[in-house]
Amino acid sequence: MRQKYQQIFKLNSKKIVSLAVIVALYVLLSWISKLINLSIFPSAPFLKIELTDFIFLMALKIIGLFYTLFITVVVSWLRILYLGDSPIDVFALMLADLVFIILFWGLIFLFNKIIKNQKNSKKIEYLTLSCALVLATVAVSFVMAFFNWLFILPMYGAFMNYPPEVITWFKGILIPILVPFNLIKFGINGIFFVMIYRAVVIIAEQYHHRQFNRTGKTFPVYSIPDFSEELYC
To answer: How many domains does the chain have?
Structure first.
């Protein structure tokens, strides 16, 4: 067990390069998203869709939970430097991403335990993946609405001097606008991740140097137990 966790947290040159690539990809896509300025609610133009969350799902498969959470925190705060986001905006975005990642990983882990004796197949793996993404998307949408009501919006009032009537207006759009926005945002990223999932698994296979087994067959590309192995990496 100790050796296993040492392997999880071990930082080698390959992992450092992977972290750098993930950071670069996130910076590029978030910058492009800002240029596109995809706002879907005219009454809340500050809510913009970004095709960046699928990167964290990719990272989860390749480098594991711990370093995915670490990289999420890092790239979130970097937004202050290259996008000019406010600290509270960054905090809210980071919190949403962290909640989504943890929920998705937890659901995958749970599903793996439930169906661990089932025969692996593409159908089962895609079903598990899709169910986890749907449930995580719905959950994070309502969790973030609650967090906004509980402490994020009061932070805007306390630290950015938003008047009480503005905070009241924000609270009024949490359910009718913020929840649908997060459903759409994380839903789009989830769909994109499913579309590229096979490529992600192949990359993960190469990253971890999976070898042929003694029967001459390769490690299955679609392997349910592989999701939660070593914290999903």
So the answer is: 1
For residue 119, the 8-state DSSP code is P
Residues 177-231: tens digit of each pLDDT: 999 999 999 999 999 999 999 999 999 888 876 433 434 444 343 344 344 444 4
Question: Distance (Å, rounded) from C-alpha 159 to C-alpha 28?
Answer: 30
- Would you say the pTM of this structure is higher than 0.85? yes
Q: In this structure, what CATH number is given to the domain that contains residue 77?
A: 1.10.1760.20
Nearest Cα to 231, choosing from 75, 25, 7, 16?
7
In a domain, 233, yes or no: no
User: For residue 115, what are the domain limits?
Assistant: 2-228
Burial pattern 37-70, b for ≥16 Cβ within 10 A else e, equals: eeeebeebeebbbbbbbbbbbbbbbbbbbebbbe
